[in-house]
Amino acid sequence: MTDIASLDSVAVAEGLFAAQPQPHLIGGRDRETGRIVFPYPAGDPRFEAIALPARGRVWSWTIQRFRPKTPPYIGAQAFEPFAIGYVELPDAVIVETRIVGIAFDAIRIGMEMQTVIIPFATDASGRAVLTYAFAPLQEDRQHG
């Protein structure tokens, strides 16, 4: 179980992210080649789990303006558009992610972002389902 889940919440997927010492994603490093992947392919002995950098830069982005198909999407029925993009984590990988905490027209390629953990749905037991996202660093919010 990820360290962020509690009785009132559950991670969207086991081993995808952790909250300590700061929110970050969990990737896998190929023990032979050093290649880094996300998510960590648990159960594949070629890979060891590693903490990915918590900060990165927007590589590309767009706005999701329609509700994705269910399944796999389990978000709210009352759909609201959201920003989705790729964030390049230095010396690691480029990850697909939601981009939160910023107006759509303020998002810029190259903008510095940090990993955050957010609720995005509620499961059948009434628990918040948590996922990862990226939000601008405080400095970018003030000057962006």
Description:
- The protein is mainly β and 144 residues long.
- Helices cover 4% and strands 43% of the residues.
- The longest helix has 6 residues.
- The strands form two sheets. A six-stranded mixed sheet has the order 1-10-9-6-7-8. Strands 2, 3, 4 and 5 form a four-stranded antiparallel sheet that branches.
- It is globular, with a radius of gyration of 16 Å.
Secondary-structure element pattern, one letter each: EEEEEEEEEEH
Number of strands: 10
The biggest beta sheet is recorded as:
6 strands, mixed
**Helix count?**
1
Low-confidence stretches: 140-144
Mean of residue pLDDT values: 89
Strand order of the largest sheet: 1-10-9-6-7-8
Specify the structural class: mainly beta
Shape: globular
Radius of gyration: 16 Å
Helix content: under 10%
Head-to-tail CA distance between termini: 36 Å
The fraction of residues in strands falls at 35-45%
Concise summary:
The protein is mostly beta strands and 144 residues long.
Characteristic key phrases:
144 residues; mainly beta; 6-stranded mixed β-sheet; 4-stranded antiparallel β-sheet; 1 helix; 43% strand; globular
Topology:
Layout: E1 9-11, E2 17-18, E3 24-30, E4 36-37, E5 47-51, E6 55-64, E7 82-88, E8 94-99, E9 112-122, E10 128-136, H1 138-143
Parallel strand pairs: 1-10
Antiparallel strand pairs: 2-3, 3-4, 3-5, 6-7, 6-9, 7-8, 9-10
